[in-house]
Amino acid sequence: MSDEVLWQLRVDLAACFRLISSYGWSESVANHFSAAVSEDGTQFLMNPKWQHFATIKASDLQLFDSNDLQTMDKADAPDPSAWCIHSNIHASLPRARVLLHCHPPYATALCSLKDPSIKPIDQNTARFYKRVSIDLGFDGLANQDEEGERLAAAFGVHNVMLMGNHGVTVAGTSVAQAFEDLYYLERACRTIILAYQTGQPLSVMPDDLAEKTAQGWDVYAGIADAHFSQLKQMLDKSDPGYAT
């Protein structure tokens, strides 16, 4: 990866932190985003321990190596749960070039239900029809390698994982693509939660219509880059410090 490409990756990931903070989806100085820089995924950028999303700059992101067994003994060690989740998933799933793990309100609320599935009741919820892994194996705060390995396996073939009693993790081929999935995931979960709150029966699409609608999103794959690019342009005017 050239220096220019690496810097642009840093800028994009920093923009993602600022945007998520502005949406109110950050949580204290917790939660973590990362981006692989090596082909096998073992080397990756990630936010420093306990730094608020709204303050993160491109130059703040740290470079870690999943193969470095001394990482957690160093002065600049990452948050234990960040290391547990991101080092193991990147090492196990090289296709996961970008990982966004956070606890956005509606998605986390859905993950707290006994049935956290996203029912296809509109086109946004149908976007995730049979395209989400649901992990119901929560066993406390993730801070051991065994838990990270379990979460990596729980992804299966999907790029979106609802983590029961916890939050969400989204994997993507780029920052823009992962951000777009997280953006639509939270909107879909908001729709589900609001629909549940009415107390009325859900109008769930039949399987064939849900699958047709999900496939229809494939035509709009380029939206992710367009959306993220325009959001960065707005950040350049309102909060340009992210790119330094």
Q: Biggest β-sheet, characterized?
A: 7 strands, mixed
Strand content: 5-15%
State the fourth-level CATH superfamily: Class II aldolase/adducin N-terminal domain
Q: Supply the CATH architecture.
A: 3-Layer(aba) Sandwich
Task: Give the tally of β-strands.
Answer: 7
As for the CATH topology, it is: L-fuculose-1-phosphate Aldolase
Average pLDDT rating: 95
What is the CA-CA span between the terminal residues? 20 Å
What is the CA-atom radius of gyration, in angstroms?
Answer: 18 Å
Low-confidence stretches: none
Number of helices: 8
Helix content: 40-55%
Structural class category: alpha+beta
What descriptors fit this protein?
single chain; 244 residues; L-fuculose-1-phosphate Aldolase; seven-stranded mixed β-sheet
Question: How would you concisely characterize the structure shown here?
Answer:
The chain has 244 residues and is an alpha+beta fold. The protein contains 8 helices and 7 strands.
Strands, helices and their partners?
Layout: H1 3-22, E1 32-36, E2 43-46, E3 62-65, H2 80-92, E4 98-102, H3 105-111, H4 123-126, E5 133-135, H5 145-154, E6 160-163, E7 167-172, H6 175-197, H7 207-216, H8 223-238
Parallel strand pairs: 5-6
Antiparallel strand pairs: 1-2, 1-4, 2-3, 4-7, 6-7
Helix pairs in contact: 2-5, 3-6, 6-8
Describe the protein:
The chain has 244 residues and is an alpha+beta fold. It has one domain: Class II aldolase/adducin N-terminal domain (L-fuculose-1-phosphate Aldolase, 3-Layer(aba) Sandwich), CATH 3.40.225. It is 42% helix and 13% strand. It is built from 8 helices and 7 strands, in the order H-E-E-E-H-E-H-H-E-H-E-E-H-H-H. A 7-stranded mixed beta sheet has the order 3-2-1-4-7-6-5, with helices on both faces. Strand 6 and strand 7 form a beta hairpin. Helix 2 (80-92) packs across helix 5 and helix 6 crosses helix 8 (223-238). The longest helix is centred in the last third of the chain and has 23 residues, at 175-197. The model has no long low-confidence stretch (mean pLDDT 95).
